[in-house]
Amino acid sequence: MKAAINKIETFGLVDGPGIRTVIFFQGCHLRCKFCHNPESWEKQKGTTDTDEIIEKILRNKPYFQQNGGVTFSGGEPLLQKDVLIELCKKLKDEKIHIALDTAGIGDGDYKELLEYVDLVLLDVKHITKEGFHNITQTDYQNKFFEFVKQLNQSNTEVWIRQVIIPDENDNIEYTTQLANFIKQNILNVTKIEFLPFHTMAFEKYSERNIKNPYLTKPAMDKVKCEELEKKCIEIYKKEFS
Q: Which helix (H) or strand (E) holds 16?
């Protein structure tokens, strides 16, 4: 089977636990204003054989040690679900930890795939319909909830990821609402991460002549982002006490 791959990173340290090989899939339905991989948006025909991907991963297996493994990211990996299933089956035979970094916006029917996934890094774009539309410039939030429903049924471990953007969601009101949203909608959450909006990808937009809606937006203050993350975790844990 052929996969449409944007790039492969061999020593990822921020896409799940431990040292990881990160496979970035090509293609995404969303057009997030804060996206740092706009080059991965357009869908393309698969050109990379899955056996070739497995071979690259296995070469890195000695570095995974106790808690490393593979992370499938993008783009949106769920748009190549059949490829993912084939890869996951082979990786499970090798006893490799599998993480899936996703916004949950695929084509549905994820039951079989989630049987092989150890950890889902779930990107929450926004908790309201209006906010989701504003951030992603699409109306696909219903697909997110379809994925979450199946994710909850799978009993897979979940890490929540939320990008924090200056003057948009960098406040205690949204932080509180997010903590309650997670509590009410998503099971098996073991970690909540706030990712500060940054401007490092701006050059990509310019090079590709893509309109950058956040061209004048400053980078998010990392200290404030960390404080909001701590508050969200505190509220989330308090709700369960």
A: none
Residue 176: other Cβ atoms inside 10 A: 14
Residue pair 9/189 in contact (Cβ under 8 Å)? The answer is no
pLDDT tens, position by position, 129-172: 999 999 999 999 999 999 999 999 998 999 999 999 999 999 99
Tell me the CA distances in angstroms from 235 to 195, 202, 216, one per residue in order: 18, 34, 32
Cβ atoms of 33 and 135 within 8 Å: the answer is yes
Q: How far apart are CA 120 and CA 100, in angstroms?
A: 5
- From CA 102, how far away is CA 8, in angstroms rounded? 16
Residue-wise DSSP of 52-81: HHHHHHHHHHHHHTTT-EEEEESS-GGGGH
Q: Which two tokens stand for residue 46?
A: 């698969």
The number of angstroms, rounded, from the C-alpha of 40 to the middle of its chain's C-alpha atoms is 13
Q: What is the dihedral of CA 217, 71, 138, 212, to 10 degrees?
A: 30
Residue 111 to residue 83: CA distance in whole angstroms:
15
Indicate the pTM of the whole model. 0.95
Q: Are 79 and 97 in contact (CB under 8 A)?
A: no
CA dihedral in degrees (41, 105, 79, 192; nearest 10)?
Answer: 90
Q: Detail the DSSP E strand segments found in the chain.
A: 2-3, 5-12, 20-25, 48-49, 69-73, 97-102, 119-123, 157-164, 189-196
